[in-house]
């Protein structure tokens, strides 16, 4: 007897489907990370920098970075956590020509220390790059542009137990050097070379000062090529690492009328 296959029998009973409505997906806004500035104000040397009249611009990390072609999410997102880099302030000291009134409340802005290039400065920078004058700066110069970065380091950026990872130290030096070059010339730059000498371990958690300028800062410029020096310290003179770096400024072309 041939084998038959069971076939489903179509139902003649009317099918009633109830309409089920689902609530719209709940949208949540992720709050911006908080700069734990109390980590800085707990130290007298940090408060001295905040009240220094020769530092007219103090800025926090900014999300997102408004500058064209700049992301910097490594500092503004990846490391911006309560257990990595808890607080970050960039301070720019242009020299003797720009002071602020310390009787006013210290204004810490969320933004970049880089000034917005104006048409006239674009033409001047294009001419400077084209001239390629080889200019060297004295190592002991005091009244020259400086950039300083203060960071509060937590425990999630360690290499050894309770010791800051050397790669984070290098990144901090790279960040402050690039900030100095961009602040002085008004344009962003790319890192060409870093040479770092590690002198001693950095114990975490801690508050660090990363310096550029004066005895550590611009060393030489020639067209788009800029050389810098700097170091990482504890704010009271103990140096943890020294660095030499080379940067290449973005090419600026003079606009044609």
TrEMBL record:
InterPro entries in UniProt: HotDog_dom_sf (IPR029069), PTE-AB_protein (IPR052061), Thioestr_dom (IPR006683)
A family per Pfam: 4HBT
Domain Thioesterase as annotated: residue spans: 164-211
Protein's UniProt name: Thioesterase domain-containing protein
Region of interest (Disordered), ranges: 1-29
